[in-house]
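Render this sequence as a predicted structure.
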Amino acid sequence: MKQRLEYIDILRGFAIFLVVLGHVLEHAGLKDDFLFYFIYSFHMPLFICISGFVSAYVYHDKLYINNINKMGGGKFILKKFNAIMIPYILWSIIVIPFFFQTYHNSIDIGGIIRAAFIENTS
């Protein structure tokens, strides 16, 4: 397996810091501030670029370097999809009823399922 790339970890930490700072500015009522707009102009694309780079880095390692665990692109994507989506769905099912109980008088199971798959509940 390839070694961790420290500069990627540092860049990821910086991106996390920017997300937290952006949320702090938003909740502090500074949505019209230049810093808020600046952070929100690139922090999510930065995460997507980092994720794509890390996925390609890991995929290259699994496909070309480590011949014992050689896997095709479809298996790799399915494995990554399951690693992300199963915890997301479970978390949504656990957390959404609390949001519904806070904002609505009754809990609607159909609404919870729609929210888990359609709305941004993360």
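Summary. The mean pLDDT is 76. The chain has two domains: 1-69, 71-122.
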